[in-house]
Amino acid sequence: MALSMLSSLLFSSLLILLLLLKPSVAIYCDEDDCYDLLGVTQSANASEIKKAYYKLSLKHHPDKNPDPESKKLFVKIANAYEILKDEATREQYDYAIAHPEEVFYNAARYYHAYYGHKTDPRAVLVGLLLVVSALQYLNQCSRYSQAINMVKKTPAFKNKLKALELERSGGVTNKKKGHKQMDKKVEEDLSNELELQIQGAEKPSMWNLFAVQFLLLPYTLGKILYWQLCWFWRYQIKKASYTWDDACYLTRTCLKLPPEHWENINDQMKDDLVLKRLWEKNNMENYLAEMRKESKRRR
């Protein structure tokens, strides 16, 4: 449904853009022909174009001719000359004349030629990061809000609310309400106290945005490099024993568990897994064999 709506929206936007765009040739000299404005043919060389421009400028320049209409015509003539005196823009204009149906391609070439070199690439990068980050944050907010609304409808969440209400009231319930639904304001206040961790729809955070991550990239890379050097020095050079945290990291990596999954494992199971030293090949193979046997036994 969402994909279909997005496709329809994109199609409508492209259709509107197509209607608003001027014809390929008109983006250069409006409705006029650049060659006609200078009084030359399309086969004229650079010298002929230059002579034609100077001749017309003597006639229509505001300093020579105060007529307002003549001033407007001079602006058009000057624009036509700017287009035709440059080989690159003249080639683009000639292509637009020969292929007027390629509206988007001709428009893209025109705007790139006139505005592309004037735009600082750094400004473009910053603008792009800000736009993408804004869309990313809005998407996170939307997903989190939808997930929270779904969780609030589950019996498990309602039971947590009732337990929290009893805890706040010291175990005394409101007899007038009995088993009826609790007050909306109370429910909202209690809901705000519950920290909901929903996998795949985490609470929106500025630290996860592309723009912030890009700014922190040097620090992140430096931190990773420092960690790698410390690891190499401690365990490869000095041959020290693994600390508990590092042993947990190796175990989690061998099991290919995300950090949040590892945190949800109880301490006893963590101890058992770490003591198995699964980062050693033989131990990992034996563990996998045990898991397969256990799986078959359960079937």
UniProtKB/TrEMBL annotation:
One of its GO terms (biological process) is protein folding. The keyword Chloroplast does not apply. One of its GO terms (cellular component) is endoplasmic reticulum membrane. CDD domains: DnaJ. InterPro entries: DnaJ_domain, DnaJ_domain_CS, DNAJC25-like, J_dom_sf. PROSITE patterns: DNAJ_1, DNAJ_2. Keywords: Chaperone, Endoplasmic reticulum, Glycoprotein, Membrane, Signal, Transmembrane, Transmembrane helix. Residues 1-26 form the signal peptide. Residues 33-97 form the J domain. It is a multi-pass membrane protein. It is found in: Endoplasmic reticulum membrane. May play a role in protein folding in the endoplasmic reticulum. This is J domain-containing protein.
